[in-house]
Amino acid sequence: MVWNRMFGKKKKDDTPDPFQDLVLSKLKVGFLVDYDMKTWEVTEYNIYDWDDGEYSHEWELTSGNQVVYLEREEDDEVEWVLTERIPFKSLGEGLSKYIRQNEEPPHELKYEGVTYYLDEGSGGYFCKGGGKQRIEFLYWEFLDESEEKVLTIEQWAEDKFEASVGIYVEEYQFINILPK
Hints:
The structure is a single chain. By secondary structure, this protein is mainly β. Helices cover about 10% and strands about 50% of the residues. It has two helices and eleven strands. The protein has helices at about 1-5, 95-100; strands at about 30-35, 40-50, 55-65, 65-75, 80-85, 110, 115-130, 135-145, 150-155, 160-170, 175-180. Strands 2-3-4-5-10-9-8-7 form an eight-stranded antiparallel β-barrel. A hairpin with a 2-residue loop joins strand 3 and strand 4. The two termini are about 35 Å apart. About 15% of the residues are buried.
């Protein structure tokens, strides 16, 4: 026993390193972060596997009754998007039928007076909790004219759709990252 204490491996220290672990891309469930003058708790973490070697990371952030989703994707550069779910029906009656018939949404959608234009679409896999179980889905991203606002549609089954709207954000806008 003394031998192990003196020469054995050290126990892994789970204490976050404030210089390496307390950054936005390393948020964990239970962490707290300040954004837009509110403190948010990380309540879920998920991965989107685009099946081409690309991954997006998503953190569900909760503050009071408000829930938003912070997504990090890396293409040529790292991009951060903050979205909030909206009722799918608010995008117009008949949209799900249109998507089923045409296998994609129309190239232009309006929501709350803003016109969004289809930018890209893809299929991928959702990995809840970052685990290995993969749920297949389809995804379309729309941008407004300024390319600062985002609207997304996800199709999870023949008749199951979700929609979100949001904005591109910068990492520096999130401060005071703390483990719980």
